[in-house]
Amino acid sequence: QVHLVESGGGLVQAGGSLRLSCAASGLIFKTRGIGWFRQVQEKEREFVGMVTWSGGNTAYADSVKGRFAVSRDPTESTVYLYMNSLKPEDTAVYYCAAQTGSYEYINWGQGTQVTVSA
Hints:
- This protein is mainly β.
- It has strands spanning about 1-5, 10-15, 20-25, 35-40, 45-50, 60, 70-75, 80-85, 90-100, 105, 110-115.
């Protein structure tokens, strides 16, 4: 079991930046990496990006490529989502989840709200 806690959300103007954090604890060594997702009310949860613990390999959704970056600090067991050039359509609740060796996402955090004003 991995326990994840997101933080760093808030209100920002379009074009601005935010950094979200995902602090992990528990059986982290059993996970492959951490993924970030977002969800707007009544819509499906959308993949944003992910990073592996080993090697720091990353992957991103097309909608955020070039604007968002995911990095990890293994010493702190924390993963960051750097969001730049934010747009109103980036407004959502952002979640992190642990990726297993079979590429499933489990142990979701409670989410953090990001609101981008026009």
